[in-house]
Design brief:
Helices cover 6% and strands 47% of the residues. By secondary structure, the chain is mainly β. The chain starts with a helix and ends with a strand.
Length: 456
Amino acid sequence: MALVSVATPVLSIALALTFVTSSAFAQSSAPDPNAPPAAADSGGSGQAASASATAPQPGNERYRDGMVIWETPADASVPFLLKFNINTQLRYLNTQNSEETFTDHLGVSREVHTRNDITVNRAMFILGGYVFDQRARYSFTVWTSAGAASIVVASNIGWQFHKALTVTAGYTGVPGSRSLVNTFPFFTSTDRSMADNFFRPGFTQGVWANGELGKGLNYLTFAGNGLNTLSISANKIDTHLALSGSLWWEPLGAYGEPGKSRNMYDDYFASKKVRTRIGTAFTRSREDRFSNLDQSSPENTSLYNSDGVLTFSTGAFAPGVTVNVATYRMWAVDGGVKWNGLALNGQYFVRWLDDFDADGPLPLASTMDHGAEFTAGYFVQPRKTMVYGRGSWVRGQFGNSHEYGGGIKWHFLPTERLWLSAELFQIDRAPYSGAFTPYTAGMTGWVPMVQTVLAF
């Protein structure tokens, strides 16, 4: 009965979201599903514009992997491109079926925060292109999350030397996981998995290089301020830089169609040709709690222990003891295959924490946690309706967690950039909390979600 009462609002929320999104597009013509795909960006994080230098397009052809606001002719003395993109994610989430408390590895009972809300979970708009030279790239992004009550204004500047090398500086995701390398919001499920959120780094300021080294072999290397410094002021960020790199190979051809959805997990375009990818990433960062030791709750919330307790919170490892600095290392390997509307994707993670600097004795010198995620999706109606299943797990120093679930994704217009999805999953002892994710530390129970996403 508890599950029934939790899931009752889902249908009405789905109908409401469908009405809102359908109404928003009712007065604009749908894109031609037979039109050729938009030109690909250069493939790296932060690349905001295509390198094309064609004359400005007629008004009815202004959409080219984003809305082209202005583009100079190829022979202009000052080359300039300004393109506009949006990502918007509206979500209904209900976690009231969860148990109200959980117990950490030291026997301390802690509260589980439950939710039943509708949020503009993420919204961002991006202005980008090139200026003065087609190799001089720029972008300006405003990122917001009503669920997290946060706003970030970011800007990037880059230079494309060659197909094999583009260098960019600014804000980006630390590329320690596949989900942080130009994939958002084109995941199979409604969001990143429990395991991915637990292990992965976050977003920070830094400099990165990316490109294609050979046929299907791509890389992204990064150096930045830390694992996640979106809400940390510069005077609190320590002097240790985070280092990260990702390498992936697509031996049978591009894993996705050119354009913004190039790295999407689903096989929306349903090619008859089998495509595969295999990738790996490694990240190292010396992390600081960013707060004085007399504050029990740290400002650095990027790291959790496997029992769901913040690594830098007082009492996370021993009663009354606070870790001030620790070294994070994480290795991930991923793979995927697509064929005729079917997509299978997975990733394995291993994380080490060690070299602790604490204000008291600790019972151990290091921790090691590992886990994995897997998704399987299939379009039962080509380019329209996909069903999927997913799961992830964490095996850790202080506890084990797992989740499994399934859902349906409906592309109600002929484009991969707009969809409505509904999902139901079961979770046992979530080891992570994130305001714009479905997860709260210690959460155990059934969770229904409905969301719609627009990403053009």
